[in-house]
Design goal:
Radius of gyration: 20 Å
Oligomer: single chain
Helix content: 40-55%
Distance between the termini: 27 Å
Mean pLDDT: 89
Structural class: alpha/beta
Shape: globular
Bound molecules: iron/sulfur cluster
Length: 339
């Protein structure tokens, strides 16, 4: 998880303005409208957009079992709050948290995740790198710098997504909801474009994974059209308690951070830029899918039987093989499917 502080430039308190919808004092100013909202109308438009994203993309159908990837940060906590508010009667909700093994960081965010689930009455499952792969990030990543294996985030992110997916399969979930927001989405689109990775770009969307592979649970993004700082503001106005402490000490997402800063500059100068990036991508997506249809289908990993869309061996096995070779992890400690 990349811990981020919201950029507050696009939302400011304007003491003297009136709400666009009523005569009350506006407390939220959204530059891209521009819109001025009082508390209840801001909350109203925020929740409307959340529900519209779900409805327009068919993200959640009646009776589906929905997992929530819950880190304890603002995005996933607001997601749990809203899913419980609007879907608790027609859907079973189960929160899943991953403990990568980073004392002083993940243990604190997990404490918030536990509290959230207790408060909302949502079932909560926690899985750890230690139980699944036999190592924790704190010990293993100390040795990474001297080895040519990849950076901490690419290793950690791949392994975490794999545990999330496998646990969602075991729990027989239909979909896994993640707190990915418009800032994340516009950064990923721009990065894939700048890297000329159109195959990866064509796989993006409000729902990732077609659901035609039993070993893969589709991931859904109800906040795909919602700015990160609006989520922070929504949490504040609804007293949604979440982790906001130190960022992960192993964060190595240098490139993403650069895109994040540059897009924030664009958004500040030209409000609505992030949303325009998303809309442009959505217009291009049908063409991309048509062009790369063969390359975006799922294969089965020859080593673990899990899903892979890159080669015959999935990214998780590739990483584990390298970590085993470098003696960072021991074969007998890994979940038996990866041996
Ligand atoms: Fe997130 Fe990177 Fe830290 Fe893993 S190592 S928790 S991906 S910031």
């Amino acid at each position: 998880m990349n811990c981020r502080k919201a950029d507050v430039r696009e939302i400011e308190l304007k003491e003297s303005k009136k709400c666009d919808k009523c005569n009350k004092k506006a407390i939220v100013f959204l530059a891209y409208g521009p819109h001025n909202y009082c508390q209840s109308h801001f909350i109203n438009q925020f929740e409307k957009r959340f529900r519209r994203t779900i409805r327009q993309n068919n993200l959640i159908l009646k009776k589906e079992r929905i997992g929530i990837a819950l880190s304890g940060g603002k995005d996933s906590t607001a997601l749990a709050f809203l899913l419980q508010k609007y879907f608790k009667f027609n859907n079973e909700l189960i929160a899943i948290s991953i403990d990568e093994g980073m004392p002083g960081y993940r243990d604190k965010s997990l404490a918030f995740a536990k509290k959230t689930c207790k408060k909302l009455g949502i079932k909560h499952k926690i899985y750890s790198f230690k139980d699944y792969f036999g190592f924790n990030v704190k010990d293993a990543f100390k040795k990474l710098d001297s080895l040519d294996i990849g950076n901490a985030c690419s290793i950690c992110g791949t392994l975490r997504r794999r545990i999330l997916n496998d646990s969602a399969v075991e729990l027989k979930l239909d979909k896994l909801a993640i707190g990915h927001n418009l800032d994340d989405e516009s950064q990923s689109i721009a990065m894939n474009l700048f890297e000329n990775d159109l195959v990866r770009l064509s796989r993006m969307g409000a729902q990732v994974g077609s659901g035609n592979n039993d070993s893969f649970v589709p991931r859904i993004k109800p906040f795909q059209s919602t700015l990160e700082n609006e989520i922070e503001y929504y949490c504040m106005l609804n007293n949604i308690d979440h982790y906001f402490g130190e960022c992960c000490p192993h964060s190595s997402q240098v490139k993403r951070r650069f895109f994040r800063i540059k897009l924030a500059e664009f958004e500040s100068k030209f409000p609505g830029t992030k949303y325009s990036i998303l809309r442009s991508f959505e217009s291009l997506k049908p063409i991309l899918i048509k062009s790369f249809a063969k390359k975006i289908s799922w294969n089965v990993c020859q080593e673990c039987g899990g899903p892979t869309n890159s080669s015959n061996v999935c990214k998780t096995c590739e990483i584990l093989n390298k970590l085993k070779k470098a003696k960072i992890i021991k074969k007998n400690k890994i979940n038996k499917k990866f041996k």
